[in-house]
Every structure is written in C-alpha cells, then in structure tokens.
Specification:
Blueprint (H helix, E strand, L loop, with lengths): L3 H20 L2 H7 L5 H21 L3 H22 L8 E4 L2 E7 L2 E3 L1 H20 L8 H25 L3 H17 L4 H21 L1 H13 L10 H13 L24 H34 L3 H25 L17 H18 L7
Antiparallel strand pairs: 1-2, 2-3
Length: about 375
C-alpha cells in the first residue's frame, strides 16, 4: 500500500498553488491582456498531469521501473541541457540572457526541473554500486570514488549556473549531493574539503555575474533600516507584503502588492503573495505541510531496505527542503533573493510536474516497506 498521507498532503499544496495562480496573476493578466483564467487553466493542466503522474507511478514496481526511469531522466535532460545553448531562440526562450525554457508550441518546459530528479536517481543508484561495497576508506580512496560524481556536478553547474544563469538550482543540487556523500560514509575531512570547494565555487559564480552582485548588495542594504527603498525594491516590497497580511491576511484576491509592486509574485514571490492575502497563519500551515511531506518521505527512507531507494528518498526530501528554505529565506530578507520556485506552490508547469514526479517515485517505493514495523 502506498503512503496515502504523503499523497494527500501533496495534493493539498497543489490545489492551494492552483488557487493562488488565479489570485496572484492579476497584474500579468492586465499587462499582457490575457483572459482572467489564463494562468489558472495552464496551472490546472499541470496539476492534473502531476496528480495523474503520482497515481500512475505509485502503481509501478520499483524493482522493475526505478532504474530505467532514472537513467532516462538523467541522460535525456542532460543532453537537452547540453544542446540548449546552441538552439535558436525560436526553440529556446532567451530572457535576460538566460536560456532556461524550451518552447513546445503553446507551452514551454524547464528541463532543469526534471534533470534534478534524474540526477538524484542516477547518483543514488551509482553511489550504492561504487561506494557501499568498499567499506572504510582512506582519503585517497575517497577521492577516487567520489571525484567522478563531483565532475558530474561541475558539468551540471556549468550548464545550469553559467549558461542558464540559475545559481539557485546549482546550490540545491550541490547541497543535496554533499549530504548523500555523508550518508554513504564519506569522512568528515573529505566532506569539509568539498564544502570549502562548494563555497568557493558559489562565491566565484556570484562575482562572475553583475546581477548576482547586485542582489547581494541589495540584501546587505536591506539590513540597514536607513537604506533607500529604491535600492532594495524587491526585498522591501516582499517584506511589506508579508507585514500587510498580518496574522489572518487581507482576504483571497485582496492583495495590493501583487499589482505590479512584486515581480514574479505568482512564482518566485508566491509565499509573500500568500502571506498578504491569507496571512501568517497560512504560511505557518504551509510550513507544517512541507515538514509533514519531508517527514513522510524520510519515514519511507528509514523503513525501505534497498539502499538505492533509501538514498533517493532522502535526496528527494532534500530537494524539497532546500528549495523551500532558499525561497522563504530570500523573500523574508534572511538571505539574498534566489530565483527558485516553491515546490508544488509556485506557478509553472515544469516545477509542478517534476515535483509531482518525485513524490510519485517515493510513493512507488513506499509499497516496498513493511507497514507493521
């Protein structure tokens, strides 16, 4: 039997995201002269596909389907990421110098959302084959085992953070991979070396791009109450929207900061938009639901006997956790803003379908655990 509470909690967040895609898209609807239900219908299609995908995957046997699905996702979307920089703008949308979206007629997809799932599936399968049989190792042996995975991460960083200018996704993947290394027995010394390299890499990637430097500067300025609000426009408006919502919110559809004051309010700043309309109590409930989803995934991981399934479940939970934390910390001014979606809630078909896919795979694995334990 699948983990029904996990499925139910995920559906609740998907439905809330669907509702907010209608409420928070007011400004974009007026600006681009869309119909009132434009974003709602597109999100409804994605949510329907996502729920169907979860149900369909949950019925499959993981011993037969996990490996082929993982290799397919990893290789397919790695190849797509490799060729995207060379495709014409008629196929790949170029926004702000970043090619992150592939046009497919009336819709577009963001390949990196699916690549993340394939990456974790492939790493989980491969680490079990190459690391676990070796037992305790010295530093030199660790380097030989783990360096190929680090190289894959470096290639992913070039494709995602450099060519697509998406540092947030790279941070999520890097943090997840480091934790998986610890779980399969890497030494603290080796982990510390990798962690230092990761921090150096992130700092280098920030320095390379003026818009990243600007975001860091805006964040530092936002910590100073006397700073000019024009210099901290996005962070200030995000915090004002949260404050304006108070405990119970202004009411669904009654938000003011979604009317052009917050860009990407239905995607990157969806939590700020929800906070204004539905209040702090809604953010508290969302956080509890996210924690519940992560807890249920960890519970499946703790009970499943196959180490590959264990690593994937942990990786899937970490992808959700890091994405939620990076987004929520950014919109509340705790860290610099990163353009990363909130799993299940942000507007965007690729994010919704890919997040649902990861839950569907966990549901598929959940059938292998003994419910009596």
């Amino acid at each position: 039997m699948i983990d029904k509470p996990l499925f139910g909690a995920t559906v609740i967040l998907l439905i809330l995201g669907l509702i907010m895609s209608y409420s928070l898209s007011t400004y974009a609807v007026m600006k681009f002269h869309y119909t009132d239900s434009h974003f709602f219908i597109r999100q409804l299609v994605a949510v329907t596909i996502g729920i169907t995908l979860m149900i369909g995957l949950s019925k499959l046997d993981p011993d037969r389907w996990f490996k082929p699905i993982g290799i397919f996702l990893f290789l397919t979307f790695l190849i797509i990421l490799l060729i995207m920089p060379f495709l014409s703008e008629s196929l790949v949308r170029n926004i702000g110098g970043a090619k992150r979206w592939i046009n497919l007629g009336p819709m577009s997809i963001t390949p990196v959302e699916f690549y993340k799932i394939g990456f974790i599936m492939f790493i989980s399968w491969s680490l079990v084959r190459t690391r676990l049989p070796r037992g305790k190792m010295g530093l030199n042996a660790e380097v030989k085992v783990f360096v190929p995975y680090v190289m894959i991460l470096i290639i992913s960083t070039l494709l995602i953070a450099v060519f697509q200018k998406d540092l947030g996704q790279t941070v999520v993947l890097s943090a997840t991979l480091l934790v998986l290394f610890l779980l399969v027995g890497s030494s603290f010394r080796f982990f510390s070396i990798l962690f230092g390299m990761a921090l150096t890499g992130v700092a280098t990637l920030i320095i390379m791009e003026p818009h990243r430097i600007k975001r860091v500067q805006e964040w530092f300025l936002s910590l100073d109450n006397s700073a000019n609000r024009l210099e901290t426009y996005q962070i200030s408006n995000s915090l004002d929207a949260i404050h304006h919502g108070g405990f119970f919110g202004q009411g669904l559809g009654n938000g003011q900061y979604k009317l052009g004051f917050l860009s990407e309010v239905n995607t990157d700043f969806v939590l700020a938009g929800i906070a204004e309309e539905l209040g702090f109590i809604s953010i508290f409930a969302i956080t509890l639901l996210m924690l519940f989803i992560v807890f249920r995934i960890f519970k499946v991981a703790a009970k499943v006997e196959n180490p590959t399934y264990y690593l994937f479940c942990v990786g899937a939970a970490l992808l959700i956790t890091f994405s939620f934390l990076i987004n929520s910390f950014g919109i509340s001014g705790i860290t610099p803003i990163k353009g990363i979606a909130v799993p299940f809630l942000s507007y965007g078909g690729s994010q919704v379908i890919a997040s649902s896919l990861s839950i569907g795979l966990v549901l598929m694995i959940s059938k292998k655990i003994n419910r009596e334990n």
